[in-house]
Q: What sequence folds into this?
């Protein structure tokens, strides 16, 4: 499950009057890929929340915008697990544009730090072993 | 409190690659005006929810798009109460563009039907008398 | 190509603090399905715009919200062509929730009227015959 | 014009099913404050674009999320100019929550690097002297 990539199509909703994808919307694409990464590892966040009171929250993001994504582009978004700790984990992520007639182009890179929180108290709680182990295999 | 209008500035976040405000985002502007209309009547939706378990949900919208709103435009959004019933209310709304050197232009019109729901069961509940009375003065 | 349906997964970006999909975001889902419907008919909107100066703009929407869509839901969005005219077309659309262990549930219905505009003048222009014909087969 | 702050009210559109402001939407708040900062310095981005072919694009962001913003919160967003260069500038930004009955709380911090681009070629161009000078006074 290395090299996990999630496809994203760019619609009008994602773009702005500059003719490119609006800078905040890359964070949506990055999160879709993380959500699908967790799903591929066997975890549904709504069930996690209901069963264990755990939610994942973003603590920090660092995003580089290298080339603009455009309306109708087909993108691939990666989500690689890094720095797995007791109550936090980092994802290294990239957005690449795919065109059938040319090389893939790297459009953006991000490092996203996630913490594991108790839904009631919003304080950090330990990531359950079952999740940690599968994430670990991914590092 | 007739003729309530709420000012909205158009930012890049609101526009799309067509160079105009994205059609779904007019619904955000319409909701900001309804929220501020309720606040002007003396009601805070977070307190309502906490104290009485009541949330307002949209049951239907009918929106006409007459002229496009553009980046940097200054808009005025109205929110007039209509058809107040036991567990629902309609808002008649308009979005107008203001330019200091010309007449106001009507850009969009909407009718939005809101229902009053119990936050736990998602079933309709009676709008509290205190709210109903102040809304009634507004009709 | 009757019964065209486009799958949409609900992510956190689509929801609001009421715990359900935010009412404006249904319009994003509806538009994704229309875009994919046109693509399935053989038309790419960026190429249309570049080659013929034509853009499709929404003139009106009528949306009913019947049941709320939730985080992680898998939805199907339909986009049926109706009332094809010289410079406008209507889409009848529905959003249905699919769960492997139960019947599909209808969550929302919409009628969306689209006009065909000249990108420079924002005035109506005739929908090209090639598009009209394939849409016609769809009615 | 030190200590520039722009007020932002949190609406349902900004929140997610976690009950807090969605992490991508902080970037919208940060951009509103930068746009208003430029306006306060005397520059309208639509006019800049029309008259000089210049657009500002985000090259990188670094955001820390310290405490969640909630529905109905009143926020203040700062936008301080830093590291003004020939074709780029950095903004140091903060989001603070204001409550009339308590101390302001710092919710988020960001460093946003902006580049000045030619709208046609998307290549860097020198920030005009008039803008540079007024930004300089701000550093």
A:
């Amino acid at each position: 499950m290395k090299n996990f990539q999630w496809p994203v199509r760019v619609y009008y909703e994602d773009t702005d009057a500059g003719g490119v994808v609006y800078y905040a919307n890359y964070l949506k694409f990055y999160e879709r890929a993380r959500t699908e990464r967790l799903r591929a590892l066997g975890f549904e966040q709504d069930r996690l929340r209901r069963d264990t009171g755990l939610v994942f929250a973003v603590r920090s993001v660092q995003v580089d915008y290298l080339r603009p994504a455009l309306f109708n582009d087909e993108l691939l978004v990666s989500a690689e697990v890094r720095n797995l700790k007791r109550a936090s984990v980092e994802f290294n992520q990239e957005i690449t544009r795919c065109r059938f007639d040319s090389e893939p182009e790297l459009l953006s890179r991000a490092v996203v730090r996630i913490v594991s929180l108790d839904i009631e108290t919003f304080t950090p709680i330990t990531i359950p072993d079952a999740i940690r182990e599968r994430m670990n295999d991914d590092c």
In short: DSSP finds three helices and six strands in chain D. The mean pLDDT of chain D is 94. Chain D has one domain: 5-136. Helices of chain D lie at 25-40, 45-52, 129-138.
